[in-house]
Amino acid sequence: xxxxxxxxxxxxxxxxxxxxxxxxxxxxxxxxxxxxxxxxxxxxxxxxxxxxxxxxxxxxxxxxxxxxxxxxxxxxxxxxxxxxxxxxxxxxxxxxxxxxxxxxxxxxxxxxxxxxxxxxxxxxxx
Length: 126
Prior knowledge:
By secondary structure, the protein is α+β, with helices and mostly antiparallel strands. The chain has 3 helices and 5 strands. The longest helix is centred in the middle third of the chain and has 21 residues, at 33-53.
């Protein structure tokens, strides 16, 4: 089932806790082994973080690859959010940051009280 099949199996583990939508484009199947594993592990950790730091009712996951080879992974939730300056890095963020480093990527966090939490990861497929 490739990346999509693996993520659908992962999502099934959380369906009793929250609703999760997955949008993934076909070009994502062309990622390399370590990139596929990195995307999977980042999403896995982001979902764990929603359980730990929730409550969260809905999560949206989107994965796309542009024609120039830029991979975008976005995970957003409807949780309580927090002031960006009050984010406290923990084990989950360290794991995500480690994979972002392995992928030579970039991480952007967007959150605010009452607005949920969104993490965007981008890296080059090339």
